[in-house]
Write a structure and sequence with these properties.
The complex is a heterodimer. Chain A is of the alpha/beta class. Helix content of chain A is about 25%, strand content about 30%. In chain A, the strands form seven sheets. A nine-stranded mixed sheet of chain A has the order 2-1-3-4-9-8-7-5-6. Chain A has an eight-stranded parallel barrel with strand order 11-12-13-16-17-18-19-20, surrounded by five helices. In chain A, a hairpin with a 2-residue loop joins β33 and β34. Chain A is globular. In chain B, α22 packs antiparallel against α23. The longest helix of chain B is centred in the first third of the chain and has 31 residues. Classes of the chains: A alpha/beta, B alpha+beta. Chains A and B meet through β5, β6 and α6 of A and α8, α13 and α21 of B.
């Protein structure tokens, strides 16, 4: 039995006086190390030992007679290194020692997990019935192992997990979940980028269902593959959007200007962007076009408009709308823009050709002059394209708009490197509705998760609309010397997402295909933010700054003492704020099993009617556990348009609305 | 006839059909396809995997597994399955095309994968199948044309502007993808030289060198990568290196590629140094290598000390002294002490201890050792040894720590290392420990002990001794042995009307087994023949028992003075004494001290002897003073004991003597083990 369900059963049904929950953890002793960070990264909360369901016994913790009984009755015990209590469960240090730097984890055996520095560890013995999760690469000595004991479980790790909690053992939370200790909370408000090239042969319903389970609310689809209109590709995208909508996932067009499409590049060599060595700007996979050429811009605008009309998009994301490259003026072979229009405009303003910066005008003042001019150009481009995106609302009134912008506050070199200047763009939020999605540049991908609260703190003073700031986490191989994995995975990823979700209302992940398989099941929990949580024999009390999902195994529920309609599929959805939960009998009214929007309130009315209020920046998607006979939006009746008898998924309009169903 | 032929054919077909192996995977495959049809891809993947394990030679199962994996979006796993299917059925061009397309999409090692895809497309476009040929040709063109353009573009960039890492690296990747391997190798090499901190480039270079069958180039890149400061690259390189230790020329080629690699220089230098014991020219090479290290890294005082000492031993003091003075002035204490030792100047003791970091593993090891946390001490000393592999004092400490942990095999290895130290204090202590421990761990161990004893009570000189050879058999908990014992005396009998033998007066030849010592206790049993040397009488002799000895405090062998408590307990079954079981307990409490060069123990002894058969001669208690000393200049294991006891028989039935007695004894103990 998984602890998450035993929690509900024990705490709510049986009404045990000594109720404990897998959501609450306690680290024994005075030195908690990084365990609070690790456990919090998937939504577990620190709490008193009397309520805790997870206990951490660090190295040296003395044995106590009642540990075995406690675990047998459902507690999860995490043991670190050598201790009498670890020995009492059969995890014993041998006399040999092993210089340990490289491990293999069963959750991803092909992934090299390598520590920055080797440490000497005793060669441990694990009990015969233990499940070995991680082994030392060269000797096979166990490093992470677990064993189920009665209703509970013991997870043992050979060493301190490191200062930040992820330096040594990336998959501790997965191991804990394998032992039945799954997180209790979830949040389904993540965004993820999507590239068709990697998924052309996948079953789209399979993927869409998986994305939703991973807490993804919107997919930002690489739209340049669909710019030119190809019957086969268009059919694919239509199927993708339909599958996503069926499973409650919204779909945004990810527009990566000045890259338009391969065909556009091939068809219009005259409009190609140039680098400072006057080569056509084909940089990595991006083939950049000249966005200062009016004819080129018109052609692109027409093409993008057509693409937005052809598909049932929920949003448009204007991404990386500035120049190249992260190496700045130091690498002229990658430096843009240097097309004829830019050169002419700058020459007209300053009296000299910017190409001279790499030959005769190598002084810092001249470079500064051009870099400021270039930042102004970038800002103007962003402004113009935001207006263009706004114009798409003529035919897609529910369209959400996102501007993805590299961070230039935390890494201040970005303005000069690529022309990005957030301070110039953020005031646009005062007069236009869009998300400002901050992308942290590759130069800081090696820094720890704490950078996200810092980034949030730097941006909030720049705008009156902090609720429109979002953050983009790049989950990719990093070029820096990073440990223990080149790409963020496991605890490091969960910490990144958790801290980002605590600091920003939206977190985007680049990209859905790079998220490693073992991370998917716990991703939604890492995005959950809960301020406090407690339980007694009858009820749970949860306080969250944003709407949240709670594991729920009961048939029905009372929230704040009233029947609650927003639950199903093992989850119960709560609006932001403090609420109490109690178990109750099943209702004979529709249940909202999923809602891709911010839930504000919900109520069960008489006559099997259910009403709820929501807010959404794009269309919302609601899923119910049955076919609806009534659907009213703000009192206006509309056709439910349900697919089948068992479930019903409906699209709802952008904004704040009250919906009534029966 | 026709009917007969038909019947025979049917029988033949039935026989062939029955002779067919049953399809082990059939049921699993049926379920796999059912799951696939139900869009339960996770279940289908698991079932196809099971079927593939049951019928590993069937490419069709791999192919179906790959297509199901594609449905789940797991292209990497699908590619591996297509690859396996392709290996099983190389003629299936469709499989090869699928594999190649997925290689081209791969995100991991993209350059190598794209190159592989291009090669497969190039091969298939020469095939006989027109459709496959057409597909492959199109794919090849789609890959090759942009690659060629990219290579031309970056070549142009590099021709027009100074080389940057990103330009050269991009060129290298494109060249690798297009199988322009010479250009790729040269570009990766150049990229690494432009940005040596990006050590992962060495792995890419190694990969290209391997593809172009340049095993020496591959080895150089891997060796350089494996010894670098970046552990990820080092570990990934280590996975690809051969099991054997690299040759000197391979080190040199790696250094040519990565001349700033201090770890590589140092390892080569020590390798040459160790080789110099057998090969004189290696010494000069070692000197050169240390000289290069010191030149590039003047702060590497360990290498500097080694270089200075090498100069010193070559009588090149003018070269040695400036370097050694620098070491004395700046190096850590152990390194400085090595130099001080060589220069015969007093060692630094604790004055620099405050400078030692609280995280210094050596210091932590010493503290753990002192506090009795031996496992921790061992861990820390191993870490210290890793940091400073030439510090023999750490090897010595590891020897003692392992010895205390009863891991004498490891202890001997560390003592053996430490006894080669140039530090006479360390080498002497380690040699002594090695010499003491080694026999216990040799395959054959022979022990001779003799104990002549003069007794005033019996007016007799007794002699006891044994020569025993043990065989150590790995993993066997006991050690077999052969033994010759001697028990005799000068007086032979008590005389009188019923003379009694005062000793066995015999040689006893036997074979037996003894357990390893466990906390001072040993069990043994032997069977043999006793041959009397007075009457040549032979009789069977079976004996065995348990022995226990323990000394607490300062032993006679110790360098210091102090209290001691010594106890010896034996419980011995001897067949020739009417199958009796004799028990001895001998206890000494006293003080160990030095009188001039003489080591002396003054003690009080209390002995108890009793048996099962309750024979009077085997049941008595005695107590009294005594002393034991080790004369200077005699073998270390020799000691002389003088003692006086007052005794009492505990069983007097059949006792022809008085119930009480006095005895003054002088005995000489000597034992040697080889």
């Amino acid at each position: 039995m998984r602890l998450q369900s035993s929690f509900a059963a024990a705490a709510l049904l049986v009404g045990a006086s000594q109720a404990c929950s897998a959501a609450i953890f306690t680290v024994l002793g005075s030195e908690p190390g990084s365990w609070p960070i690790i456990l919090s990264s998937v939504g577990h909360l620190p709490g008193p030992a009397t309520q805790a369901g997870i206990f951490v016994a660090r190295a040296g913790t003395p044995a106590a007679a009642d540990w075995k009984a406690k675990v047998e009755h459902g507690a999860a015990l995490i043991l670190e290194g050598t201790s009498p209590v670890a020995s009492s469960f059969g995890f014993k240090a041998g006399t040999d020692s092993i210089s340990t730097v490289h491990l293999v984890d069963t959750h991803n055996p092909a992934l090299p997990v390598i520590w920055e520095k080797a440490i000497e560890l005793p060669r441990y013995e694990a009990p015969a019935n233990a499940q070995i999760f991680a082994k030392e690469r060269w000797t096979g000595a166990p490093l992470v192992a677990g064993v189920k004991v009665g209703l509970g479980a013991v997870l043992w790790v050979a060493a301190d997990p490191g200062r930040n909690g992820y330096e040594r053992f990336p998959y501790l939370m997965q191991a804990l979940a394998d032992l039945g200790v799954a997180p209790v909370f979830r949040s389904s408000r993540l965004w993820a980028f999507f590239d068709y090239s990697y998924r052309s042969r996948a079953d789209l319903d399979y993927l869409a269902e998986r994305w939703r389970k991973a807490g993804i609310s919107a997919l930002h689809v690489a739209s340049w593959h669909f710019f030119d209109g190809d019957p086969e590709r268009d059919a694919y995208l239509k199927r993708l959007i339909e599958a996503c909508h069926r499973h409650g996932v919204l779909v945004y067009a990810w527009i990566e200007l000045p890259h338009v499409s391969d065909k556009f590049w091939n068809d219009h060599p005259e409009w190609r962007e140039k680098t400072a060595i006057l080569q056509h700007a084909q940089l990595d996979w991006r083939k950049l076009m000249n966005l200062q050429n009016p004819d080129c811009v018109d052609a692109i605008r027409t093409g993008v408009r057509r693409m937005m009309q052809r598909f049932d998009w929920d949003g448009a994301n204007l991404a990386e709308l500035y120049f190249e490259s992260l190496e700045g003026a130091g690498n002229p072979a990658r430096f843009t823009p240097m097309n004829d229009n830019v050169r002419a405009a700058f020459r007209a303003q300053s009296g000299w050709d910017p190409v001279e910066l790499w030959s005769t005008r190598t002084d810092a003042e001249s470079l500064r002059q051009f870099l400021d001019f270039r930042a102004g150009l970038a800002k103007r481009m962003q402004e113009e394209w935001l207006q263009t995106a706004e114009s798409f609302r003529e035919f897609r009134p529910d369209l959400d708009i996102v501007l993805t912008h590299v961070d230039d506050r935390f890494d201040t070199g970005m303005k000069d490197a690529i022309g990005a200047d957030a301070a110039r763009v953020l005031p646009l939020l005062d007069r236009q509705q869009f998300w400002f999605l901050i992308e942290d540049p590759a130069t800081v991908w090696n820094l720890g998760p704490q950078r996200y609260p810092e980034i949030a703190a730097k941006y909030k003073p720049l705008t009156k609309h902090p609720e429109k700031l979002a953050i983009d986490i790049n989950i990719v191989d990093r070029y820096q010397d990073v440990y223990p994995t080149r790409q963020q995975t496991g605890t490091e990823l969960f910490e990144l997402v958790h801290l980002a979700a605590s600091a920003f209302p939206r977190v985007a992940l680049y990209f859905e295909n790079s998220i490693l398989r073992p991370d998917m099941p716990l991703l939604a929990s890492s995005a959950a933010v809960v301020r406090s949580y407690s339980l007694d024999a009858r009820r749970l009390t949860i306080d969250s700054p944003m709407d949240i999902e709670v594991n729920w195994s009961g048939d029905g529920a009372l929230v704040d003492g009233k029947p609650w309609p927003a639950h199903g599929s093992g989850m119960l959805r709560l609006p932001a704020g403090a609420h109490t939960l109690e178990r109750s009998a099943r209702l004979d009214a529709p249940s909202i099993t999923d809602l891709n929007a911010v839930l504000r309130s919900a109520v069960v009315e008489s006559g099997k009617r259910v009403s709820f209020e929501y807010t959404s920046d794009s269309r919302a998607i609601a899923t119910f556990d049955r076919r609806l006979s009534l659907l009213e939006i703000d009192g206006n009746s509309t056709t439910p348009g349900c697919d089948g008898p068992a479930v019903c998924t409906v699209m709802l309009p952008r904004g704040s609305h009250r919906v009534t169903v029966r | 006839v026709e009917s007969c032929i038909r019947l025979a054919t049917l029988c033949l077909l039935a026989t062939v059909a029955l002779a067919q192996e049953p399809d082990a995977a059939y049921d699993t495959l049926v379920r796999a396809f059912d799951s696939q049809r139900a869009h339960d891809y996770d279940a289908a993947v698991a079932l196809f995997q099971k079927a593939a394990a049951l019928s590993p030679g069937r490419p069709d199962i791999r192919k179906n597994l790959a297509y199901t994996l594609l449905k789940t979006g797991d292209s990497d796993a699908a590619r591996e399955q297509f690859g396996e299917a392709m290996r099983l059925d190389p003629a299936d061009l469709h499989l090869a095309l699928e594999y190649a397309f997925l290689c081209y999409e791969a995100r991991e090692n993209p350059s190598a994968r794209k190159a592989e895809a291009r090669r497969i497309f190039a091969r298939i476009r020469e095939s006989a199948d027109p459709e496959s040929r057409r597909t492959a040709d199109q794919a090849f063109q789609n890959i090759d044309v942009p690659l060629a353009a990219g290579i031309a573009r970056w070549r142009q960039v590099l021709a027009a502007s100074p080389p940057t890492f990103s330009a050269v690296y991009e060129l290298a990747q494109l060249a690798e993808q297009r199988d322009e391997l010479e250009l790729a190798a040269a570009s990766y090499r150049q990229a690494f030289q432009l940005l040596p901190e990006r050590r992962s480039v060495l792995l890419e270079l190694a990969r290209v060198e391997k593809t172009r069958s340049n095993s020496e180039g591959m080895m150089a890149a891997l060796l350089a990568a494996s010894r670098g400061p970046e552990t990820r690259t080092a570990e990934l390189a280590r996975e690809q290196l051969p099991d054997r230790y690299p040759y000197v020329y391979e080190f040199r080629e790696a250094l040519e590629l990565d001349p700033q690699n201090a770890a590589l220089h140092r390892e080569l230098a020590y390798l040459l140094l160790s080789m110099s014991e057998k090969k004189e020219t290696a010494r000069a090479d070692a000197v050169e290598e240390f000289r290069a290290i010191v030149k590039d890294s003047p702060q590497d005082y360990l290498a500097a000390a080694q270089l200075g000492l090498l100069y010193l031993s070559d009588n090149r003091e003018a070269l040695a002294m400036p370097i050694l003075r620098e070491v004395l002035g700046h190096a850590d204490q152990p390194t400085a002490n090595r130099v001080r030792m060589a220069l015969k100047i007093p060692l630094l003791l604790e004055e620099r201890r405050a400078e030692v970091s609280a995280n210094d593993p050596r210091l932590l090891g010493e503290r753990s050792f002192e506090a009795g946390f031996l496992k921790d001490a061992k861990r820390y000393f191993l870490a210290a040894r890793e940091q400073n592999p030439v510090d023999a004092s750490i090897a010595l400490k590891l020897g003692w720590t392992n010895n205390m942990l009863h891991d004498d095999a490891a202890a001997i290895r560390w003592f053996d290392i430490a006894r080669r130290s140039s530090d006479p204090v360390i080498s002497s202590e380690a040699d002594k420990a090695y010499t003491n421990l080694r026999p216990d761990n040799e395959r054959f161990r022979s022990t001779l002990w003799i104990y002549p004893l003069l007794s005033s009570r019996w007016g007799d000189l007794f002699g006891y001794g044994q020569l025993k050879t043990e065989i150590k058999v790995p993993k066997l908990p006991v050690r077999p042995y052969v033994s010759v014992r001697f028990a005799g005396d000068a007086r032979r009998t008590t005389g009188g009307v019923s003379p009694q033998n005062l000793s066995e007066s015999a040689f006893i030849f036997g074979v037996g087994v003894a357990t390893r010592q466990w906390r001072g206790a040993t069990g043994w049993f032997e069977a043999g023949t006793s041959i009397g040397y007075l009457n040549a009488q032979q009789m069977a002799d079976y004996r065995g028992g348990l022995s226990y000895s323990k000394t607490i405090g300062v032993s006679l062998a110790s360098e210091r003075s102090g209290w001691f408590l010594e106890t010896l307990a034996d419980s011995v079954y001897i067949s020739r004494f009417s199958n009796d079981l004799l028990n001895y307990s001998q206890n000494r409490t006293g003080f160990t001290s030095s009188v001039g060069p003489l080591k002396i123990q003054t003690f009080w002894t209390s002995n108890l002897t009793f048996d099962v058969k309750k024979q009077y001669w085997a049941n008595f208690a005695e107590t009294g003073p005594g002393f034991r000393f080790h004369p200077d200049g005699t073998p270390p294991s020799l000691s002389i004991t003088l003692g006086a006891v007052r005794g009492i028989y505990l069983v007097n039935k059949g006792n022809p003597h008085r119930p009480n007695f006095y005895d003054f004894r002088v005995g000489v103990w000597y034992a040697v083990t080889k």
